[in-house]
């Protein structure tokens, strides 16, 4: 196959991806800001709307009750957000595939009941109980996969059936005891309730994280320049890393004024970072976006579409199980109510509020974090105001509607800007 | 299943590389619609075969059979002399059959580089975006593509730009046969010429090319052989040079006063005109195929392979 050498214009060397004369120069800091505005106008909203949302919500609650933004309350907020946040992370995977799982609440409840039964009632060691409980998630995901791939049942219907069926199994498991308390001195409960990072460790971790962001950006830019492609400027990268350092540093310091950064929250962050890597940096993740965008095109590219759906359902159910175990640990017991009520909808709402499209193929792992922070903030703020859960449902419902409307408007805007 | 008009023209082929692909009696039904009946086709290395026929003649269906999107109901396909079964797109890729589909089959939410390398990403566990982007530019420049940036979603490209992306994608990896389903339909003048140049370059490099086109000037400009499909059947093979546009068009439309159909009807009384369903040229026949089990082939990708018993038995993975 012959290759025509790229036509490089005379004069200053131009990166080989910047040769088209219609491309407007987007260089340096102002170029960065400009391209960001372009993206936003084109309906690629990213995390911006939800971050604006968080600022509005926090300001409102802080005005209504000055305790809201106290270190103590924010530490609580981080811990309260984890269980449902992990479940929401699983929802992100199925939403990216353009599918849905309505049963994550029930699956988390079943897993909570499983871990409590095995650990407390049957006396198995905790790791065994946890592994078996996660195994429940794997099995549920595989059942959904079978129904979906083999029989072509819509995921909406499969998981609606699962919602009822697994709630049934959960109640049956807990039948005799009603609810099972986890011992307070068990590692599981300590992990979820009283394990905090030493201050020094938290600051070191912030430094390491920022250094990693900078290094990966720097080496990526260098690799691009070496191959003759345009690359973001080192100054821009420095500013970005500096801002991240200040942001994370201040947040950590603020939490450390009280109990600090919970290990459970760190665990959630690690899950998100891993998921984000898997989704954006691996062939596996790309196949998820491809199937969510155009399943037939993905199939014709040689992707085993059935297997991609299988991964989506299994990852979602497994994360629901992990969320259920964490919920039980946080509460110190598995009850018939674990995973019921608003857990299901909060998890789905968090993923959508965080910017994961219900139409498939768009979203990110970070959506689970920012989305659950919105939802937990609303819950926490209204609780501080002594308002009943009725108000909470109304406000959360309104926010969800807003997020979905934004998603739909952004989609239309993308269409009119030719970005599908 | 005999296709009478097949034999003699193939033996007259002026220059013959090794035989890459040979189809014998390939048949494909969609429910009650016989989209392909007893199709024969041979492609040699360094040969451009133009596949022509009216809308609904079955050209795209034949392409999809070769690409592993649909499994053939019966008939044999041999690749480089070996009988092969192509039951999934991965099978076709492994053999070295690359396809540019008429509907392009791109993921609108992914950018140009991601689409080009979809399913063939470099360094699966830590994607090598830089190398992929470099290679993408290389391929696109080779096609004189006018794409300002490769890091925007394909949804924001024009029809012609998308077509170029789809063609560029087929050149990735080292395909032996490249199938182009109406590759120039959405292209401008310069780009059409570029694609025709590309087809000639592919032939010079010893690739086999199957090109579908409605543009007879394009066909005669680049093809070595013309295979005509009509209502899902072979309706003549021609060697470019020995044939006029009128003859090809007559075979496409089934005009009875042309030599090919006369020969065919002399040898085989069941002419395509009388046997094939009269409405096979319209897309409305899709709606007629609603029988359970049969219509599964039309359903979305995910349940296709699982509901098709033949696909199931030999599908890899
Ligand atoms: N997936 C399908 N399901 C049912 N019928 C189909 C399908 N694909 C093609 N057909 C039918 O097969 C026939 C041939 O179509 P096609 O191969 O697309 O024709 P061409 O590409 O030559 O215009 C048409 O009658 C069409 O309606
Ligand atoms: Mg066609």
Q: What can be said about this structure in brief?
A:
The complex is a heterodimer of chains A (420) and B (317). Chain A is an all-alpha fold and 420 residues long. Chain A has helices spanning 28-41, 48-64, 71-96, 104-121, 126-151, 155-174, 187-193, 199-226, 234-256, 263-281, 283-293, 295-300, 305-331, 343-353, 366-384, 389-416; strands spanning 180-181, 333-334.
Describe this structure in words.
Helix content of chain A is 71%, strand content 1%. Chain A is an all-alpha fold and 420 residues long. The longest helix of chain A is centred in the middle third of the chain and has 28 residues, at 199-226. Chain A is globular and about 75 Å long. Chain B is built from 14 helices and 10 strands. The model of chain B is unreliable at 1-14 and 270-317 (pLDDT under 50). In chain B, the strands form 2 sheets. A 6-stranded mixed β-sheet of chain B has the order 6-7-8-3-9-10, with helices on both faces. In chain B, strands 2-1-4-5 form a 4-stranded antiparallel β-sheet. The two termini of chain B are 33 Å apart. The chains are: A mainly alpha (420), B alpha/beta (317). Chains A and B meet through helix 5, helix 8, helix 11, helix 12 and helix 13 of A and helix 3, helix 5 and helix 13 of B. The complex binds adenosine-5'-diphosphate (ADP) and magnesium ion. Adenosine-5'-diphosphate binds at residues 30, 33, 35, 53, 55-61, 280, 283, 285-286, 289, 297-298 of chain B.
């Amino acid at each position: 196959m012959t290759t025509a050498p790229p036509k490089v214009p005379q004069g200053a060397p131009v990166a080989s991806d910047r040769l088209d004369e219609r491309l407007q120069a987007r260089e340096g800091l102002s170029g960065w800001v400009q391209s960001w505005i372009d993206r936003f106008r084109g309906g690629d909203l990213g995390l911006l709307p939800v971050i604006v949302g968080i600022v509005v919500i926090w300001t409102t609650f802080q005005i209504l009750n000055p305790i809201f933004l106290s270190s103590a309350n924010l530490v609580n907020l981080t811990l309260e957000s984890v269980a449902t946040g992990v479940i929401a992370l699983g929802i992100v995977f199925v939403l990216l595939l353009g599918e849905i799982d309505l049963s994550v609440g029930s699956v988390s409840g079943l897993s909570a009941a499983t871990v409590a039964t095995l650990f407390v009632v049957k006396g198995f060691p905790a790791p065994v109980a946890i592994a078996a409980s996660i195994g429940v998630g794997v099995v549920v995901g595989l059942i959904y996969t079978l129904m979906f791939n083999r029989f072509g049942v819509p995921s909406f219907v499969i998981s609606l059936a699962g919602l009822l069926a697994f709630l049934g199994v959960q109640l049956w498991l807990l039948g005799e005891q009603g609810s099972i308390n986890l011992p307070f001195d068990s590692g599981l409960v300590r992990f979820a309730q009283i394990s905090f990072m030493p201050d020094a460790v938290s600051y070191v971790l912030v430094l390491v994280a920022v250094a990693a962001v900078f290094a990966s950006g720097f080496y990526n830019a260098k690799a691009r320049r070496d191959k003759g492609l345009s690359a973001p400027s080192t100054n821009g990268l420095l500013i970005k890393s500096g801002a991240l350092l200040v942001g994370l540093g201040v947040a950590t310091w603020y939490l450390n004024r009280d109990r600090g950064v919970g290990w459970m929250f760190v665990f959630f962050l690690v899950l998100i970072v891993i998921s984000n890597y898997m989704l954006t940096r691996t062939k596996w993740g790309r196949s998820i976006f491809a199937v969510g965008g155009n399943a037939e095109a993905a199939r014709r590219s040689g992707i085993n579409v059935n297997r991609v759906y299988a991964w989506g359902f299994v990852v979602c159910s497994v994360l629901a199980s992990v969320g259920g175990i964490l919920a039980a640990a946080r509460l110190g017991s598995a009850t018939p109510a674990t995973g019921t009520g608003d857990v299901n909808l909060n998890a789905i709402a968090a993923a959508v509020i965080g910017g994961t499209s219900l139409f498939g193929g768009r979203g990110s792992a970070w959506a689970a974090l920012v989305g659950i922070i919105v939802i937990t903030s609303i819950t926490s703020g209204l609780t501080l105001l002594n308002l009943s859960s009725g108000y909470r449902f109304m406000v959360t419902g309104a926010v969800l509607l807003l997020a979905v409307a934004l998603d739909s408007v952004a989609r239309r805007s993308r269409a009119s800007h030719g970005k599908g | 299943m005999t296709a009478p008009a097949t034999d003699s023209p193939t033996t007259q082929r002026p220059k013959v590389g090794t035989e890459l692909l040979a189809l014998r009696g390939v048949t494909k039904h969609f429910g009650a619609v016989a989209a392909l009946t007893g199709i024969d086709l041979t492609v040699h290395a360094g040969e451009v075969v133009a596949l022509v026929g009216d809308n609904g003649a079955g050209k795209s269906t034949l392409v999809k059979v070769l690409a592993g999107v649909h499994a053939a109901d019966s008939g044999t396909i041999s690749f480089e002399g070996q009988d092969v079964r192509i039951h999934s797109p991965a099978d076709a890729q492994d053999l070295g059959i690359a396809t540019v589909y008429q509907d392009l089959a791109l993921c609108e939410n992914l950018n140009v580089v991601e689409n080009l390398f979809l399913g063939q990403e470099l360094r699966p566990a830590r994607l090598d975006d830089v190398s992929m982007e470099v290679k993408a530019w290389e391929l696109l420049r080779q096609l004189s593509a006018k794409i300002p940036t490769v890091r925007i979603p394909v949804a924001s490209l024009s029809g012609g730009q998308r077509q170029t992306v789809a063609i560029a994608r087929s050149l990735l990896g080292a395909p032996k046969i490249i199938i182009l389903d109406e590759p120039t339909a959405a292209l401008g003048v310069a780009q059409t010429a570029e694609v025709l140049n590309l087809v000639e370059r592919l032939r010079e490099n010893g690739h086999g090319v199957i090109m579908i086109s409605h543009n007879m000037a394009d066909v005669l400009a680049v093809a070595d052989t013309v295979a005509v499909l009509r209502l899902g059947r072979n309706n003549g093979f021609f060697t470019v040079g020995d044939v006029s546009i009128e003859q090809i068009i007559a075979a496409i439309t089934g005009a009875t006063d042309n030599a090919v159909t006369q020969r065919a009807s002399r040898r085989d009384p069941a002419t395509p005109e009388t046997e094939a369903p009269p409405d096979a040229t319209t897309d409305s026949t899709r709606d007629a195929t609603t029988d359970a089990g049969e219509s599964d082939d039309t359903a979305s990708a995910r349940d296709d392979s699982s509901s098709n018993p033949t696909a199931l038995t030999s599908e890899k993975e």
